[in-house]
């Protein structure tokens, strides 16, 4: 692993050693490349010079989590299409305490 070194040095090391090199801010000549997923997807505010952002997913993820929390608080999620049904004859066999119990209040973020 060659990290954050000058490109000519990464190139030279890769050429002179027998094992593969993996670069993270080293050289295109390395045998492979790696980036931190959160950095390349735009989930971190500051990134090193060698990071190329391949997306800006932070705002999309934030919006999705916000919508999820709103629907949970409004009790519109999960809907009938997101839960498993049970036959009425089976429901009627449940102990009465289980039928009467109301679920926990949703978590407030």
Question: What features would you describe in this structure?
Answer:
By secondary structure, the chain is mainly alpha-helical. It has a domain at 2-34. 36% of the residues lie in helices and 6% in strands. The chain has 5 helices and 3 strands; from the N terminus they run βαββαααα. The protein has helices spanning 7-16, 37-40, 58-73, 88-91, 96-100, and strands at 2-3, 22-24, 32-33. The chain has a 3-stranded parallel sheet with strand order 1-2-3, with no helix packed on it.
Which geometry do the CA atoms define? Answer: elongated
Helix proportion range = 25-40%
Strand-pairing-aware structural class: mainly alpha
Task: State the major sheet.
Answer: 3 strands, parallel
Strand order of the largest sheet: 1-2-3
Mean pLDDT: 90
Low-pLDDT residue intervals, each spanning 5 or more residues:
none
Q: How many DSSP H or I helices?
A: 5
Strand content: 5-15%
Query: What is the helix/strand order?
Result: EHEEHHHH
Span between N and C termini? 40 Å
Record field, number of beta strands: 3
Question: What is the CA-based Rg, rounded?
Answer: 26 Å
